[in-house]
Description:
Blueprint: H1 2-20, E1 23-31, E2 35-42, E3 48-53, E4 58-64, E5 67-68, E6 82-89, E7 94-101, E8 105-113, E9 121-129, E10 139-142, E11 157-158, E12 161-162, H2 171-181, E13 184-190, H3 207-224, E14 228-232, H4 242-251, E15 256-261, E16 273-278, H5 285-295, H6 297-300, H7 321-339, E17 345-353, E18 365-369, H8 376-383, H9 385-411
Parallel strand pairs: 1-5, 13-14, 13-15, 15-18, 16-17
Antiparallel strand pairs: 1-2, 2-9, 3-4, 3-10, 4-7, 6-7, 8-9, 11-12, 16-18
The chain binds zinc ion.
Amino acid sequence: MRFYIIFIALxxxxxxxxxxxxxxxxxxxxxxxxxxxxxxxxxxxVKFKAFTLDNPYRLVVDFPASAWxxxxxxxxxxxxxxxxxxxxxxSSEVSRVVLDLSSPxxxxxxxxxxxxxxxxxxxxxxxxxxxxxxxxxxEVTKGSKRIxxxxxxxxxxxxxxxxPKPKPRSIAKIQKTDWAKNKKVIILDPGHGGVDPGxxxxxxxxxxxxxxxxxxxxxxxxxxxGKYKVHLTRNRDIFLPLRKRIEIGxxxxxDLFISLHADSHDSSKIRGASVYTLxxxxxxxxxxxxxxxxxxxxxLAGVRLDEQYDSVGNILIDLAQRETMNLSAMFANLLxxxxxxxxxxxxxxxxxxxxxxxxxxxxxxxxxxxxxxxNRRDENTLLSKQQRSKLVLxxxxxxxxxxxxxxxxxxx
Length: 412
Ligand SMILES: [Zn+2]
């Protein structure tokens, strides 16, 4: 009996996955002497778009939001002009594959192959090396099926039972209740997402999954206190430009913004958490390097330079921001002090550098580096449910102290 239930659940899982969206079934890269071929096998006929980007050199292939059914061990190894490959959601409608290239290329050919034998549809993109300077951004769209615009609708009925229409809550009422309860608004920002995986451990743990899981756990615990309203900048595995993260925080009128990360370090021995705040001048070389690496997230995800608003690499801080920076530093210190006895911390735990994601002028912001995925013990700690609840409680306590202190200061 139990076997049957599992079997039916599996079948249902397979079918619902198949019905939900197309799936990428395999990826191959065939390096040639003058041409390199990228082949993406997809379960359905899809429309796709391929283009190249400069500085650094990249090939981008966009297609309708799809499941990724390729195991890590079956991913192509870097070789030839291809230095690396990333994939994931770029927006709720678009999946993206980005190839990092060592030299400029042009798109020589693109086409969609019909299923043959056991092979499903295949997106084929041929790229050809060109001399630097000859580089020209080009865009090729192929395929016959329109990209599906998925719309999320409130279900009208569930198992045949009619659900009541959601009542629009009056805005005035919401504001009044919040004001009465004086709930503080906390913005949690799970680092990376979608086509930008962040750090990847040797075992294949991805930073983007850890940051999202911990953000959700933190949200739950914060809301349990009844003192906070918590918003996540993303609540699924999707790419989000850095600037957008700040915009979401400000639109939700965040009182405090916490970006969560678990990055990599050149040395696998380095472990422990650190807390970063914004500054024009970095506290140390390593903090500067980390900020520079984080600020490149948009570039790694294949954002076009002209989509990139102001240059995020250039952090200029105006006077109005000083007050916010003082509050950020105050919270960072409280967080470090709270974690000191119960969590593995790095030396110089509170560091600062020019992180673009901490740049909101009016919302105190910190970046919590929870540990390093390049360190086995840190990775195990962050994968452990028990250890994670400990971390979550330490952060909740620090947030409580921060607002207590602010309240005390305000009362004089
Ligand atoms: Zn990160």
